[in-house]
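debug: dumping io for the single-chain case to check the tokenizer round-trip. Nothing else runs in this session.
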Amino acid sequence: GDKAVVNNDGDNAISNGGTGTQVNGDEATVNNNGNTTVDGKDSTGTEINGDKAIVNNDGDSTILDGGTGTRITGDDATAN
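debug: decoded output
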């Protein structure tokens, strides 16, 4: 929903077409504080569908074999 806040404090491993975090709504904030590995086609670490989204990646990200680290669909997004 709108104005969702997600805090991922541990490590994440996403593969086989999976999605680690998905938010549908405007003004969402996702804080990825651990390390993230995304491996494989159609795999996505963080996906947000909405305007004014903010994604903060504070850990290391490893993206392999056609994976996507962060996908935001919407206007006025910020990825740090």
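debug: round-trip ok. The chain has one domain: 5-79.
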